[in-house]
């Protein structure tokens, strides 16, 4: 006779009994929910960035003194997307209208500082398209009476509202401007270096037109082409081919294809002759 309730036993290579049934803990573990994967963390700032930022803050505060009300870090530094060749961009809000811009260097990092009247910036949030996406992710590093924090909050609110839609007159102007830029490049096809330079300007204007026509805020330069491709795969592919095409003739032809795609529903400027 043997006990049917006893664990079934096996023998290992050492002739020692080993249980073939799972333990209570093992059975309970199988019932536990599988944890969701954690969201990827933002990449850390490169080593030494904190010291560079601190040095820049000390310089800006000493430069403006009592006139300074807030210092906001914007751009790739605020997004924690610094690379080896990224600069740090600061907007220093001041009380008066003594505005300006300067470039300094801390260690091997370039620092771009823009001094702006805080009241002027607040007013410009309603009509300057580059400000809401720039300021909404800004990191306020120095503040007086919460002026910088409130400005960042207003920028985020303005961003959620979306850019002001382009009316038909603006759309026609965008089309005319881009066709003009492309035509200049085509006219200089016999001078490839000049034509390539003009074609680069044309591509920049086409990217601006894409964001205005579709009603999107302009993204960071490093993300522009990726953003376009995710919103319109066909147009994104043509932009990519313009950049990578091996010959000037191909790039000019792709420029014409791109304008036909993007402005197909927009009329030309009216003729009065």
Model description:
- The protein is an alpha+beta fold and 273 residues long.
- The chain folds into two domains: 49-161, Beta Polymerase, domain 2; 168-262, Four Helix Bundle (Hemerythrin (Met), subunit A), CATH 1.20.120.
- 47% of the residues lie in helices and 15% in strands.
- The protein has ten helices and seven strands.
- The strands form two sheets. It has a five-stranded mixed sheet with strand order 5-6-4-3-7, sandwiched between helices. It has a two-stranded antiparallel ribbon with strand order 1-2.
- The longest helix is centred in the C-terminal third of the chain and has 23 residues, at 192-214.
- The N and C termini lie far apart (113 Å).
Chain-wise SSE layout:
Blueprint: E1 9-11, E2 17-19, H1 24-31, H2 49-64, E3 68-74, E4 88-94, E5 100-106, E6 109-117, H3 118-124, H4 131-135, E7 139-143, H5 147-161, H6 168-187, H7 192-214, H8 224-231, H9 233-244, H10 248-262
Parallel strand pairs: 4-6
Antiparallel strand pairs: 1-2, 3-4, 3-7, 5-6
Q: Could you give the order of strands across the largest sheet? A: 5-6-4-3-7
Shape: globular
CATH evolutionary superfamily of the largest domain: Beta Polymerase, domain 2
Estimated radius of gyration = 29 Å
Span of the ends, CA to CA:
113 Å
CATH fold description of the largest domain:
Beta Polymerase, domain 2
Topology, number of strands: 7
Number of helices: 10
SS content category: alpha+beta
Number of folding domains? 2
- Tell me the strand percentage band: 15-25%
Q: What is the average per-residue confidence, as pLDDT, rounded to a whole number? A: 87
Give me the strand/helix succession.
EEHHEEEEHHEHHHHHH
CATH architecture of the largest domain: 2-Layer Sandwich
